[in-house]
Write a structure and sequence with these properties.
By secondary structure, this protein is mainly alpha-helical. The longest helix has 26 residues.
């Protein structure tokens, strides 16, 4: 494992909500969004790990995503009916957070008995 990590040390960027495997800058969503496709490292502050093909989520990231979903749910409940634009944006964000939590949970439990049969 240490040999693998040593080889990947330049490409692995550890964040609070994901691991970024920055192996191909042309595929990095953060660089595309920033308009800097030739950068030599990711822009962590612009990471949208739920959409980036080089980001991975692991059980250690679950608390961050679950808390984000819960906070977003609270804000959704507090918005008035006239706040349609904000509601739509927050709803997408909430749905994305729930999807990431579900994917982390699914990966942690592994394939079901039916899948392995």
């Amino acid at each position: 494992m240490l040999n693998l990590l040593t080889k990947r040390a330049k490409t692995l960027h550890i964040g609070p909500a994901n691991f970024c495997w920055f192996t191909d800058p042309s595929r990095a969503l953060c660089l595309k969004l920033a308009g800097t496709p030739t950068a030599d490292r990711p822009l962590v502050g612009m990471c949208d790990s739920a959409r980036c093909p080089q980001a991975t989520h692991h059980p250690c990231h679950r608390p961050v995503w679950a808390e984000h979903a819960e906070r977003t749910k609270t804000f959704l409940g507090d918005l008035g009916k006239t706040r349609r634009t904000e509601h739509a944006r927050l709803q997408r964000d909430y749905d994305r957070a729930l999807r990431v939590v579900a994917e982390i949970d699914a990966a942690a439990t592994g394939p079901s008995d039916e899948d392995s049969a």
